[in-house]
Amino acid sequence: METFKELFEETLKDIYYAEKAILKALPKMAKKASSKKLQTAFTKHQKETEKQVDRLEQVFELLGKRASGKKCPAIDGIIEEGEEVMKEAKDDTIRDAAMLAAAQSVEHYEISRYGTLVAWAEKMEMSDAAELLQATLDEEKATDEALTGLAESEINVEAEETDEGEEERPKRRAAGRR
Ligand SMILES: [Fe+2]
Ligand SMILES: [Fe+2]
């Protein structure tokens, strides 16, 4: 990697790989969500993510390159951690809270990547690429805010109520569940 353009392209490959990994993870998360609102949020973002992959392919085209991904250990780790807590959570509302937190860490990773890519595209005076990347950045930020809203209004509140319930019914779900 010698030029700024090459660095840009490498980062594009990183986020392309990440988006594809997210595209695989989101349906699983939607399926496991017990809150309808959380499920809707995941499904909605899955559709957005499909469009985001398209946008990245357009940016590759603007560079005169074929779209390709490069293994991104950061996103693999974030998703893996999310899957782990999903498995470990023995209560639906706790699982929802865990998935919501995992989803937010994914969004934050994406926001940092797209923020950088927009800035670099602008620096290289690739305004069409900057516009495409900015459209995705806006969606990632909106998703993050929607998830924060859910956390504050519903998911974490219910998860906490579960704790209060547990005190009255200590061994309620202690056995027989994964
Ligand atoms: Fe995305
Ligand atoms: Fe996202």
What is this entry, summarized?
With 178 residues, the protein is mainly α. It is 82% helix and 0% strand.
Describe this structure in words.
The protein is an all-alpha fold and 178 residues long. Helices cover 82% and strands 0% of the residues. The chain contains five helices and no strands. The C terminus is likely disordered. The site of one fe (ii) ion (FE2) has 6 residues, from helix 1 and helix 2.
* Unreliably modeled segments: 169-178
Q: Provide the helix percentage.
A: over 70%
| Backbone CA Rg | 19 Å
Strand content: under 5%
What is bound: which ligands? fe (ii) ion
Strand count, sense and barrel status of the largest sheet are:
none
Name the shape in a single word: elongated
User: How many DSSP E strands?
Assistant: 0
The end-to-end span amounts to: 47 Å
Structural class: mainly alpha
N to C succession of SSEs: HHHHH
| Overall pLDDT metric | 91
Q: Which key features would you list for this structure?
A:
single chain, 178 residues, mainly alpha, disordered C terminus, binds fe (ii) ion
